Input
Amino acid sequence: MSLVIPEDDNRLRHVCADCGTVHYQNPKLVIGTIPWWQADQQVLLCKRAIEPRRGYWTLPAGFMENNETTEEAAQRETTEEAGARVELLGLFALLNVPHVHQVHLFYRARLLDLDFAAGTESLECRLFRESEIPWQDLAFPTVSRTLQRFFADLGALTEGQAVPLYTLDIRKRLQV
Output
């Protein structure tokens, strides 16, 4: 394996010296939800039981698997991490995180009931009003920026108004 620019390409790629096969390395998709309990104006967060950022709060999200859609990934991750049943209400945020080779997608989701519990990747799951969110203890900038935008758009969303897809490029590395 060597790192070369293949013919008809413009980027360094890992290429097998024997057979010429190009082994592409592309960004990973992280897919999640913003689970919302409208009756009490609360969002469901999970405290991470795994690294990176063990012990910090996050939205239920994780890596998309092969052979699933982004909506299926969002549903699966919400079930795996929080044991929560949700109805997806549409894509809300798309955040590019190029320095870690990831793209994060978050769907708005309505909690169908309050029957949720921490999965194996979560220490705890609980509902938070905006004023209760542990902003300094959120695991990732993608989560804090998505939640900030969600609460900024909440008035329009609860009135049934459409809001544009939130997009952001996060190029700054997380300081831990």
